[in-house]
Amino acid sequence: MIATRRVRPDKAAMWLLALPMGLIALSTIYPIFFTINIAAKTRKEYILDRFAISHTFYWENFSSAWEQSHMQDYFLNSVITTAGAVFLLLLVSSLAGYAFGCMRFKGRRLLFYLCLIGLMVPVQVILVPFYKLILDLHLLNKHAGLILSYTAFFLPFCTYLMTSFYAGIPREIIESAKLDGASLWMVYLRIILPMGKPALLSLGILNTLYCWNDVLISLLVMQERDKRTLMVGVTSLRGEFSTNVPQFAAGVILSVLPVIVVFLIFQRQIAKGITVGAVKG
Amino acid sequence: MTSNLLDPSIPQARSARWQFWHQREPEQYMGYLFALPAVLIIVVFRLYPLVSGAQYSLTDWNGIGEAHYIGLDNYERLLHDQVFRDTMLNALKLIVTLPIWVIFPMVLAILIHQGVPGGGFFRAAYFFPAVLSSVIIGSIFNLFLRYDGSFNNMLGHLGIPAVDWLSDSKIALFTVIAVEIWATFGINVLIFLSGLSTVPDELIDAAKVDGANLFQTVVRVIIPVLRPITEFVSVATIIGMLTSMFGLIYVMTSGGPGTATYLPEYLIWFQQGRLNEPAYAAATSMVLFVFMSIVALFEIRLMSRGSDM
Prior knowledge:
The complex is a heterodimer.
Chain A: H1 2-5, H2 11-39, H3 43-48, H4 60-67, H5 71-102, H6 108-117, H7 127-136, H8 143-167, H9 171-179, H10 184-195, H11 197-213, H12 216-221, H13 230-240, H14 245-280
Helix pairs in contact in A: 2-14, 4-14, 5-8, 5-11, 5-13, 6-8, 8-11, 11-14, 13-14
Chain B: H1 3-6, H2 16-22, H3 27-56, H4 73-80, H5 82-96, H6 98-113, H7 119-126, H8 134-145, H9 150-157, H10 172-196, H11 201-209, H12 214-225, H13 227-243, H14 246-252, H15 264-274, H16 278-308
Helix pairs in contact in B: 6-7, 6-10, 6-13, 7-10, 8-14, 11-12, 13-16, 15-16
């Protein structure tokens, strides 16, 4: 069946085309190995020959990058804010998705559109007033501040996706649970949350990446040195290690390690999440 | 896109009285309760700042003292601000590169769809950089592209003289753009692939029966079918260009050399944080917002047309 779909006579051409495509694939993967190779060298090796493949693996770069220069603190800050924001995002968007997708109440449409307008307001456009708001709410340099900020910026999309997901749940399931005497809260806990699992998992992974990778919002909200997140920390690492490139490379590798692990495990979900988001809006 | 979402084929609830007796909590107020956290967060942190930002842009507020209304002075100042002009010109140059951002991934997606050997692996490898933070990508490419870095070394072996990729004001912007394309083209490949999966097999078969070769099939059959998704990708890419390049610029060039790699988002951040002119930055923000809203309206039109069909 699959064979009929494809244009067959060009099989040789396909193999020929696979070559440049393979080179492009190589280019997207290579930089990580390039960086690992640098991180494996001692400073002296690096200065003597930048490009040679390292024969030894100088672990000390990693341990000293981790211990010096606050990387531990940065890492912890990233874990706290990412975990907090993702939890809050899933909780709030599943509640809202349930309300918008399954309930009928006056003003539902209006409130839903209000959430969608949020999609049109990226952080760049409200940098100044957003900073002022964070300042006025005493959220500057606080984990809660960054958690709330991430939630605010990624929530419209999550709400939209959960609403469209829950709108597809057959009404009868909820109705029959209610007839059995379940309150709306019970329906949420026993039916809505478990049924939303695939969408919540996908959103959870995607938003973990977004929060972990963010620079601009974190730069704005966490200005004290010991409150920096890992990605902002890496930019400051660059200055500190300008004379010790291998140690900087080791810091870079340490900070992407979690992302690479997530990518390898959840590659399919990430790809699906990206396309669903793009195609649906 | 959203209108059909809100009209699910939900059987209308029975009579009001039936509802009243059979539900512990009426949906009327429970709905508000469930939707409240999301609405509150979005209104307070996204919509309110938009309004107050528009207000700030009409004042001389300096971040600490009182704000005085000065009308459109900030906007007038922008008109004569060379840095702002440079930034807008850079943004224009960026947008002009749009065809590369769209056509390159389209071609790759079509080839993967047509069954290039190793397509599944390519698909995954292509979007790998998209999960990395722009800070990481910028840092790696700083090492790679520096004047005495590996890239120039590689070119040297091919007999090409070294280029100062990040410090030459004629080249720096395009270097950053190329890195951003490299980092994100995999996303557009995925989107095109999801669009390709909707191309009816019969169309391709018919072309094949007519004796069309791969190239003819692609040009006459596949590309016309992909038109809506191409429009969508173009619009989404423009929005991405204006909102997701801050990290790269911040790490790779800091806007330099001079203003060679200033883009609106970087300029706003610079005016707000470094120049400490929040009101002025707010005015720049409003210009960006108006432009992005126009683009977004296009997007909404495209998407609503899609759902009507």
